Amino acid sequence: MSVHAEFSGGHMEEAAARVLSELLEQSHEVAPTGIPRLVSDVCQKYGLGEVDIFVVDEGQRQLAPLTLPVDDGRRGLSMDRSVAGLCYRTTSLRIAQDAEGQLEVWLPLLNGVERIGVLQVRPDHLDGARLRFCELLASLVTLLVLTKGAHSDDYRLAQRTERFSLPSEMVWAFLPPRTLGTRQVVCTAVLEPAQELGGDAFDHSLIGNRLTTTILDSMGHDLAAGLTSSVAMAGCRNARRSGHGLGDLVAGVDSRIHEVFPDRFCTGVLGDLDLDTGAWSWINCGHPAPLLIRHERVLPGALEREGELPLGLGHLTGAPRKVHHVQLQPGDRVLSYSDGIIEALSNTGERFGLHNFLDFLIRATAAGVTTYEALRLLIQAILRYHDGHLQDDATIQLFEWRDPESPGGPDQAYTSAYATGAGVQGAM
User: Mean pLDDT lowest for which of 20-24, 117-121, 286-290?
Assistant: First the structure.
């Protein structure tokens, strides 16, 4: 029995195993630039149709074809005006036809809750067995893109629409994935302008039953600012991997910044969440106070505390940093942001402002938009408001804690309004 026949019959598992096995075996000795061709060739060999891989660009504005060399004339697909973009935004399978009537299956490429891009499969026909295989193929392609892309500048080039500055290159090298999540928590962040970063940065990590979060804004908008943030992030990771608590972690970062850059400082909010109980601890080092969102409204002053000196200036007092504590309720969201989000001016001299910022976010999440897609929509709205040019870095970090006993995945599904894009304008 041929593999083609097996996909149409009752032997999907055996046929899929053959295809996936061949892809795995051949991928070990294929250069990163050869992965897209390998995947498409193997799938066509077994009668499964053409396959294309698209990865999201750094600004999450379009999906770039992973067809190399990058300058082969193929254009990226719009995030907001394509079936591929709809697949990415909703993290759900989409089936369509192209202009010639060719069947297209679009599947999200997901690493947990982190969105990598989308996969396009063009089968001659579609049934349950082939659809299931497409889902398995998307999972394998995600792993191939992540592992091969870790040591390929070609993949990075495919994701870039503009040249990156040196400070931006350095900060992006340190940044973690935008989104991570479990059944108990989802944490996501966005950072703009992607290609011209100065001193903003973020970090988040899961360690056992805890989530650590960091948002940073270093003094200045130059290479030294990027270096200061990089030292701060490295200090945070070194401390937590050495088992230090939040107070010792901040003290260590404080001293490292002062030691390396005595004339520099860095504001930030560093937090630690117990995933089992919802107890959140944080230290605010001269940064805008984080916000607590509960039942789709901000609780005024809930996380405002007496100000602390920025990181790098702790030696001026010698006093230990104050660790604050709050008990979260299931469904609570904690939002941290840099001042570039609300203080940048439009061409008419108007600020986007904290009110518009929060109103957009709350409307989007109340309408059922996933946490990570809500932040993508928000940062794009801010960029449009400022005609695509920000005077300062703009960073947002948001995490949501859930009842460990409640069912469900890492985030809620879209409402139909947002799935079709109809809810985006309403949120403004």
Answer: 20-24
